[in-house]
Please model this.
Amino acid sequence: MAAGSPEHLDVLIVGAGLSGIGAAWHLQDRCPGKRYAILEAREDLGGTWDLFRYPGIRSDSDMHTLGYRFRPWTAAKSITDGPSILEYVRETARDHGIDEKIHFGHRVVAAEWSSGETRWKVEAERSVDGERVQLTCDFLWACSGYYRYDQGYKPEFTGEERFSGPIVHPQHWPEDLDYRGKRVVVIGSGATAVTLVPAMAKEAAHVTMLQRSPTYIASLPAEDRIATALRRRLPERAAYAAVRWKNVVIQTLFYQLSRRRPELVKRMIRRGVQRALPPGYDVDKHFKPHYNPWDQRMCLVPDGDLFRAISDGEASVVTDEITTFAERRIELASGEQLEADVIVTATGLNLLFLGGMELSIDGTPLDVPSAMAYKGMMLSGVPNMAFTVGYTNASWTLKADLTSEYVCRLLAHMDAHGYRRCVPEVDPSVTEQPLLGFTSGYVQRSIADFPKQGSREPWKLRQNYVLDIRTIRRGAIDDGALRFEFAYAGSEDGCEPSDSSRPLSPVSS
Ligand SMILES: Cc1cc2nc3c(=O)[nH]c(=O)nc-3n(C[C@H](O)[C@H](O)[C@H](O)COP(=O)(O)OP(=O)(O)OC[C@H]3O[C@@H](n4cnc5c(N)ncnc54)[C@H](O)[C@@H]3O)c2cc1C
Model:
């Protein structure tokens, strides 16, 4: 994409991660006439699965639901490692020619909707020379994930400067970090910490997971035996669909049970942890959270690897508060001291909406927190724009796929009726609620910067795949909340239908 030569697209996808590649597949399949491109800030595709390089990086949901609906996951392991997920995304892009549509090294910094021209004017910064390039598009589709890529979240710890070993954040893992035979302390209790601890314990002298408070942790087999058996008996696609549905149903029921009968689920999880750990282990101190299951995202460990590392004495859990770092140790509020050669701060992400893009409508900057999310994928008052954000209580891709299906249906609907503009408009009787209900620190830190959800459909975020199939896959496009308009670019009375013969310059970085 050359500087100074604005080009026009029917659809611009921002981000070439799992969602962006899935979005492109759907566009090609369902709206084959649309000219589109993907702008990707980084130099490679895969997003999360390319960025994170820490030991043991893996999914914490099964690949039958984290995989795309349209592309069966066929490997034996259902909970799998990051490089395998990256390869799956790469293959999808390669097999469908999507990789040829990606402009790497282009960070979208701003997009302005022009009502006069009925299009978005998009500005992207090229990483190679820092230059800004412009393009225009009819429809803007943000598949930019949900967190900052340049910086993970790390609180300031007292005395950090006194620690003489490396302090590492999992989001910025140094390739050459040597922790063999060393004492490692991993600070945190989330998905990343519970992944890192057993993985690092294989080579470290000892790994301590230091947490301020516990998280719910459940163990699942890495390999799904039913999936393996079905793959032998059924055609690939049928087996995949069957296992995907099995997992959707189990996860939905478990989530609903957690919300309706939290005490029962607490007991079930506790029993599982207790069985996996040696007799006499203080399960309540280290594995009994102060909140209800699914008030925060639940952690999953494949084949109980974390519990095995603890049982084998390779790893341990300490639940305490940090008072200060010292030269080779961490001092705790209880008076205990943890000797450490390496400290890993698995303290989380910084959430970021729309990949940091500044949106404006006819020159007025969009105040994102005052907008309401429509079906969890469009914004009130923002024309011709969608964003893909997955579920928090189930695999991301379930919602990402539904979003893609919806956007394609919406585009087809607009084409069929000759509409040039669609915009969600909130009924004033709908009341505002926070977009996410999680009590986790990373959500609470940033939720004020996110749009709201509404008290009822189509503004309410269901976080429920089965219900969303009804409303998103099958529901009417013209539902009264989306306003459609015939507007034409180029003249006041509107005259210029989309000209799909305009050339698109070659893909370049
Ligand atoms: C360590 C980790 C493990 C996870 N494990 C799971 C799991 O097991 N199951 C699950 O369901 N979810 C999981 N998630 C959530 C995960 O992020 C999603 O599953 C999924 O990978 C998100 O894909 P995405 O394409 O929407 O976003 P991302 O993977 O974040 O990709 C977004 C892409 O957009 C690009 N981008 C962002 N802003 C811009 C911009 N302004 N201009 C141009 N490009 C931009 C980024 O560079 C990136 O390539 C995990 C997240 C993390 C961090």
Remarks:
- Confidence is low (pLDDT under 50) at residues 489-509.
